[in-house]
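[step 3/7] fold_predict: job queued, chain A
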Amino acid sequence: MILFFIILGALLSITIPLFMAVSSWAVFYIPSRYARRMFFKRIGWTSNDPAARSISLALTPWVYMTAGWTSASISIFFELIGAAMLMIIGLPDNWSAFLLVVSAGPIEEGAKFLCALVLFIVLDWAILRKARGERAPVKDAIMAGFLVGCSFGLIESIGYLAMGFSGIIKGGISYETLDPVIWRTLLGVPIHGLYTAIACIGLGRRTAISKIALTIVGLLSATILHSLNNAVQGLFVFILEREGPMEIMIVDALQIGLIFFGAILLITAWNLGTGGKEIPGKRKIAK
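[step 4/7] structure written:
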């Protein structure tokens, strides 16, 4: 039995990240000409070279697995420290639980940002700088953040989906038991991709001032959106102790509103933040 779960886990660690990579590719491939013609081609996913395409697709699951497990492990480590500190302080259980879910915002966004930064640096220096023609480093950084965020969301959602299906088995089919499963299935992965993409809107800027300033703005925005998303649910569950259908619908509506706000912010950064134009053989010049 143990061997079965080891083999199953090994297979899922490869096939699920690959599935998420294909989903991420579809999200940007359809609406974005840049992702379709530039980014995915340069990293090999849609390369005209069969060898480059095969190598890229073979490495993709391992990149996802590494980014997801690394960011998740860092987050769990600091969340355990936070939980221990709350126990030492001795707050009431409901307030400790509320603060713990809210603190997941800065902890998880910080961990994902670090992994996205490493991935962007590796891609930028190893692959993207060698590309000919126009480059958009801001968009490259956003893509790196989205991929890391999706990999983290995938790891996290697997656990929540397991608990959700367990709740359906124990409590039967109802709005309360179906909501977490539907939410995690549809939005559990892309919402983390959205947050980390926002956190990375400043990484590809050319000047140090704009890079630092916009990185701070992006990281703070992602952290605030993530914390508010968790706080909305934590308020009803832990503080008000109300989990009826009406409260769940209110929480869903507020969280979807935060997603729309974050999407508008990301779309604005994607369309306006090109980071300058790359001239082959010359230094990048600002527009």
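[step 5/7] annotate
The radius of gyration is 20 Å.
The helical segments are 2-29, 33-42, 50-89, 93-126, 137-171, 175-199, 208-239, 245-272.
exit 0
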